[in-house]
Amino acid sequence: MKSDQEKVAIQGILGSYHYQVARNTFGPEAEILECLTFAELVRKITSEEATIGVLALENSIAGAILPNYDLMDRNNLQITGEFYLPISHQLMAYPGQKITDIREVRSHPMALLQCKAFFERYPHIQLIEDLDTASVAKTIRDEQLRGIGAIAGKSAAEIYELDILASDIQTIKNNITRFCIVKKDDGEPSLAPFDKVSLKLIIKNEKGSLAKVLNIMSDYNLDLTKIQSLPVIDKPWHYAFFIDLLFEDLNDYKEAMAKITEEGNQIKIMGEYKNTKTT
Length: 279
Description:
The relative contact order is 0.17. α8 runs antiparallel to α9. The longest helix has 13 residues. The protein contains nine helices and 15 strands. Strands 1, 2, 3, 4, 5 and 11 form a six-stranded mixed sheet that branches. Strands 8-7-9-6-10 form a five-stranded mixed sheet. It is α/β, with parallel strands linked by helices. The mean pLDDT is about 95.
């Protein structure tokens, strides 16, 4: 997966959690393309400005990031790998200040939510939503803002030379985000070994159809690790199911997919890759 030729699109800027994943996955040689939004990230991939991207899909506390499933589906992105990053939030500020000097903390809404309990001890601090964790840290450094804090990772504090006023302030310490490595679908099947599959399933509109599909998966020893529903926009009251599954025998997987399709259901493979979750 590593390559010194990769141009990697990330949501956020240097020091963001997406940045950490990109560096851990592709190394220091890769060129990082910063994107303020997930939509911009996807555009860079589909326009081939970026060769690959890092896209957060779910958090162990907050759950799935539903719009990103839709972005992947509508833009025909393929998942080529995954990365589980433990999220450790730090409260940081311009050097020379104490937490009592901070009157306002800005960060991504998810980071604010995950640290809400910590700030209950500091009622004088107002929490304000922003687009990105690391971008707030950069603004504080660039504009030498005092009285303003940011919630971000340690790498942001290092890159933007801010003081960490409190460490690991997230309410739940076992806080992990799953990131997927995505690329433009070139129509070529994966040649690398894989034991995990992400797919989109649209079941036929018949009573008990979903139960039948799940039974087929069970019959062929497929381990369903995630199922997420989203409405089909042009078909009111119809739903697509985004599913992650694991298998041990490749033939079991192939036969199950064939059987599900034979039953009149639609399957779109969104990625075949190696499972990296260890627990």
